[in-house]
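Look over this record before class:
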Amino acid sequence: DIIAGRNHSLRVTMMRQNTTGTSCSAATDYSVSGVKAWLIRASGDPAGTAPNLINSSNASVSLPNAKPGANNVTLNFSSGVANFTLANSDVGKYAVNFADSSNSYASSEISGSSSTYVVRPFGFYIAVTSNPAASSDAGSVFTTAGTNFTVTVTAKAYAAADDANSDGLPDNHADTNAA
């Protein structure tokens, strides 16, 4: 569950076929650091702001929408595994792709892709024009049945202050804080 505005810790693993040829596992002798990383946007992607990939040294790179000509990301693979953070500021629907063109581990380019991620808003802020926001039956009347009124709905990015239990869902929105 990837949420706009919240960083997500992810891992990329270089896999290889075992010598028996019947299964695959992490390539524990793979230790390349420079790779290419980019997005492939899926059908229905709103083409918003691309996420940043942050490596273990906190170097941040905005992921391009096409395969770069040269390495654009440093990932420190150890025993075939590299951890990184995907920092999303916008909603989206895309896969993250990686390629190692160094030919230092294999005689041709090694590439792979994540599943398609759907990055959702944290929540929605709903505002009703001219609503007096009565909290009891003694409050002011908003409108009568059958009368049109205006509602504005705004998708919101993650706000830790509104997620006390860290479940990725807004908490206690009986306040006027639209953050």
Remarks:
- The CA atoms of residues 1 and 132 lie 36 Å apart.
- The mean pLDDT is 91.
- The two ends are 20 Å apart (CA to CA).
